[in-house]
Specification:
heterodimer, A: 73% helix, elongated, B: 98 residues
Chain lengths: 246, 98
């Protein structure tokens, strides 16, 4: 009698398990079906990836413990190396380009612009002071897509004017505490650098790299020039670590 | 789809897993910068506003700039997603019913 009950229970348990498994499979198939049905514009996807990169400012806001300071440097360098390896595998044909979403046609035989963006962003975060790195990074995140959209809708000149205006504001926001004259000089020079970096097109260097590095290098040269001329220039602190000073 | 899409590699031919991954990453792309800007705004509120420290004003301005900049591009992105998904999901449901 006991054995019979056990058999009945185990059979009903198996049936319940089978039903649950079937239900999970059905739900999974339904979810996959809905995901596959979704289609979106790669153009807007790339724009959103650009603006989402503003999240990199978290780098400066993390608490200023020694292990955090070291860890974040190793993390960004590690991610960069990983991206580099993936791109080498893609260009050599080991990884197929269809495994990447939203790549442009001209990126088929050269590194994707996301790698150029990452190289410049990591250089800015690790090498440059934050007063220079933050506006240049924001130029790539905001100026680039805004300039692209305005250029597409209203023409090249309107794009350049809008790009200069947006970059100028970004530099003013980060340099306002350095004094009016320094703020204006740095903002004009930085905005010009960002617009030149975005406008000039080279086959092997992406504008995502140039829009960050050109203004950064131009401002470094400007700072060195001002120091050489005896002008007292102190770089403003833009962001403070969460919960404490630098 | 816009005319600009001709300059992109054929997304229809993209690996199914990659496309699903791109779709699943969309909420992360939208939410992460918003979370970071909220962190900046909270920092300004705690250190700048409550403790009257003017050095934290940049946190406030950058937080607002990041939120505005992101929402500006998130809206057309989500619109492009919804338009195609509504149509396609209805087609998918219709196929299932048949």
């Amino acid at each position: 009698m006991k054995k019979l009950n056990h058999d009945v229970l185990s059979r009903s348990g198996k049936e319940a398990l089978q039903k649950a498994r079937q239900k999970v499979i059905e739900q999974r198939d339904e979810l996959i079906g809905k995901l596959d049905a979704l289609r979106f514009d790669p153009h807007w996807y790339r724009r959103v990836v650009h603006t989402a990169a503003a999240s990199l400012l978290l780098y400066y806001v993390l608490p200023a413990y020694e292990w955090v300071n070291n860890g974040k440097v190793y993390l960004v360098l590690g991610l960069l190396i990983l991206g580099g390896i993936i791109e080498v595998l893609r260009i050599k044909g080991i990884l197929h380009s269809k495994n990447f979403f939203g790549l442009r046609q001209y990126e088929r035989e050269r590194a994707g612009s996301y790698l150029y963006f990452s190289v410049a962003a990591v250089l800015l975060l690790v090498v440059f002071p934050q007063a220079i790195a933050i506006p240049c990074l924001l130029c790539a995140c905001l100026t680039d897509p805004i300039m692209g959209e305005i250029r597409y809708r209203f023409g090249k000149t309107a794009g350049i004017i809008a790009g200069f205006f947006v970059s100028f504001i970004l530099f003013v926001i980060t340099w306002y505490s350095a004094g009016f004259t320094i703020m204006m000089i740095v903002s004009v020079v930085g905005a010009c650098g960002a617009v030149i970096g975005e406008t000039v097109k080279y086959k092997w260097i992406d504008d995502d790299f140039l829009i960050q590095m050109v203004p950064a290098l131009v401002i470094v040269i400007l700072m060195l020039g001002l120091i050489y001329l005896g002008v007292n220039v102190s770089l403003p602190v833009v962001l403070y670590p969460f919960g404490g000073t630098i | 789809m816009t005319q600009q899409n001709t300059e992109y590699m054929d997304t229809q031919a993209a690996n199914e897993h990659v496309r699903r991954m791109a779709v699943l990453l969309s909420p992360v792309l939208i939410m992460t910068p918003l979370v970071i800007s909220i962190i900046l705004l909270v920092q300004w509120f705690i250190q700048g506003y409550l403790q009257h420290d003017a050095r934290y004003t940049t946190e406030l301005i950058l937080g607002v700039v990041i939120i505005v900049g992101n929402i500006l591009f998130d809206i057309p992105f989500v619109q492009s997603l919804r338009k195609s998904s509504t149509k396609k999901v209805h087609e998918h449901d219709k196929d299932l019913n048949e």
